Amino acid sequence: MLEEYPIQGRRAADISASVERAVGAGELRPGQLLPPMRELAQRLGVNPNTVAAAYRTLRERGVIETAGRRGSRVRSVPATTGREHFRVDVPEGVRDLAQGNPDPALLPSLAGAFAAAATEGDRTPVLYGDTPVDPELARIARAGLDADGVPDGPLAVVSGALDGVERVLAAHLKPGDTVGVEDPGWGRTLDLVPALGLRTVPVGVDDEGPRPEDVRQALEAGARALIVTDRAQNPTGAAVSAARARALRAVLREHPEVLLVEDDHGHGIVDVALHPLAGTTRHWAFVRSAAKAYGPDLRLAVLTGDAVTVDRVSGRHRLGPGWVSRLMQRALVRLWTGDAVDTAAVAASYGLRRNALIGALGRRGVTACGRSGMNVWVPVPDETGVVARLLHAGWAVAPGARFRLTAPPGIRVTVSTLADEEIEPLADAIASALGPAPARSYV
After folding, report:
1. pLDDT tens across 108-156, in order?
2. Mind listing the pLDDT tens digit for each residue in 196-213?
3. For 273-291, b where at least 16 C-beta lie within 10 A, e where not — what string?
4. What is the pTM of this model?
5. Can you tell me the distance from the alpha carbon of 257 to that of 281, in angstroms, rounded to the nearest whole number?
6. 209-210 and 64-66 beta bridge pairing
7. Nearest of 234, 107, 238 to residue 162 by alpha carbon
8. Partners of 265 in the beta sheet?
């Protein structure tokens, strides 16, 4: 019955806004079928073309999807609600390994860095028209990028890795374009791409990063852009190896017009070398975030790329926020140049916890992966059941549905705060939640 649909309006903009509000409020649920355009037009007393325009807007905004004669329905993960729909509510007394946060004990104190930056700001205030990138930050960032083999290019500063990815995609693509995304991959990226009106095509991932054949298929199918996480891939912990980087560069050279976006959000917490792909295609961007090593509230990332891409990103940034606070930039310079953080020790700490859990699971016949970063990915036959059983046993982990499109199910375990004495009990709980060994004979 059409009466069950809380959709109103006489203009396309009003109809689309009505649907979006209903999705955000939960009145239209993920996967729910929408009324056919002619039926809705008749009910609202408008031309079917008006409803068609509204549905087109909703598709471009990532709220609904259309499957030919099967009609239009709310996306399983609509952009208005995001993948937080899949988050686990952690009861009191349950050990939370689901949130994906760094270990607060390994984060530096920010007080000294910000105090010094503020003192400098008092001496030389930043005013409208000043350069948006702190010269000392640019010098240090460029030296680090050079050391890691990232090609030379102009620099911009953005508000975190995802902000950089969004700005680069918006600088080159138009609604309807297709983007190759890692699967499993970062849930917020999987939400962001359709929210920009872009289509996703999944690219499989193993321990060494995106699979070259999957990348080739995506690009040959018309993907205009490819997003790659170089290290500490979320949720699998994959890291692009030297051999994999060579194979991916060979594929990318066959498609020089593809936009390549690389995310190095794991900089400062990883114990594997960087093997960048940047410079293989005509347009590229490389984003290096400070959030994981210095704290999620330090919303700052350095972005480099080809001249056209960085110019477009910087120009659009000037028209909006203008710049990322130079106070934060100066504080990051002091964190980079001071002794508040031993990044090698931080990376080693995460590596020890990650490898210990993977080893403990392996001794129990449970396959798990996590080559870098702070997460371990465990393939499972039934996410809902495993997550529920672990929750009952006192452990909260993240369901894989937050991170995948077509990839097989799994769970993500964040090991950042895992204590030595917790590893064996956690491995026991995961093995028990999976059931007897014969039931785990899936790939």
Report:
1. 999 999 999 999 999 999 999 999 999 999 999 999 999 999 999 999 9
2. 888 899 999 999 999 999
3. ebbbbbbbbebbbbbbbbb
4. 0.85
5. 6
6. unpaired
7. 234
8. none
183 close to 202: Cβ distance less than 8 angstroms:
yes
Residue 206: its H or E element: strand 199-206
- pLDDT single digits (tens) 81-121: 544 555 667 888 999 999 999 999 999 999 999 999 999 99
Give yes or no for a cis peptide into 381 (omega within 30° of 0).
Answer: no
CA angle 96/98/100 to nearest 5° reads 115
CA dist 426 and 443 (Å) reads 22
CB-count burial class (<10 Å; 0-12, 13-18, 19+) for 82: middle
**Angle formed at CA 360 by CA 354 and CA 364, multiple of 5 degrees:** 140
Tokens of 133: 């990138």
Instruction: Report the alpha-carbon distance of residue 88 to residue 108 in Å, rounded.
Output: 28
Beta-strand (E) ranges in 40-87?
64-66, 72-74
Closest CA to 153 of 162, 141, 136, 165: 141
Structure tokens at 384: 């809902």
Q: Are 280 and 303 in contact (CB under 8 A)?
A: no
Bridge partners of 226, per DSSP, are 180, 260
> Among 86, 403, 77, which residue's Cα sits nearest to residue 237?
403
Spatial contact of 178 and 222, defined as CB atoms under 8 Å apart: yes
Q: What is the pLDDT of residues 221-280, one digit of tens each?
A: 999 999 999 999 999 999 999 999 999 999 999 999 999 999 999 999 998 999 999 999
E strands present in 251-358: 259-263, 284-289, 301-305
Contact between 94 and 407 under an 8 Å Cβ cutoff? The reply is no
For residues 170, 174, 177, 180, the Cα torsion angle rounded to the nearest 10 degrees is -10
Structure tokens at 224: 């205009």
Q: Which residues contact 83 (CB under 8 A, 6 or more apart)?
A: 77, 187, 188, 190, 191, 401, 402, 403
Residue 159: C-alpha distances to residues 198, 290, 298, 309 (Å): 22, 10, 8, 17
Query: Cα separations (Å) of 417 from 129, 310, 360, 367, 412?
Result: 43, 37, 17, 21, 14
Question: How far apart, in whole angstroms, are the C-alpha atoms of residue 214 and residue 251?
Answer: 10
Q: Concatenated DSSP letters for 380-412?
A: -S-HHHHHHHHHHTTEE-EEGGGG-SSSPPEEE
Find tokens 């031993």 and name the residue. Answer: 342
